[in-house]
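Moderator note: this is an archived Q&A kept for reference. The question asked for a predicted structure of one protein chain; the sequence and the answer are reproduced below.
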Amino acid sequence: MIPPTIYYSRVGLELSKLVFQGQKMSPPSFASFQAYLQPLINAARHPASVFTQTTTTSNTMAPETILGQMRNLNGQQMVGGVVVLAEAIGFFSVGEMLGRFKLVGYRSSNGEHH
């Protein structure tokens, strides 16, 4: 008997192979892995540099900067944001319905019916 963990990991591996072949995807190159992991390696080697980077990124996260970026959005970016927001609300709503096992309303402790 194969343990469920091994079984489902093999099923997931085969499914990912089918998706990769069907979408004509290829795994990332070693250079892209290296470019992604290099900042993490540098942070591990020089922990003090992490604090200097946070001060530079905090300037880009200032409320004035964020408001300026929002004012400079074009129509296509606004429509894309609204679509993503609608998807997030839809997924949240479906998750709530599945979690409560009800389409409408919450269960209440009192016996009143509306």
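Archived answer notes: DSSP finds five helices and no strands in the chain.
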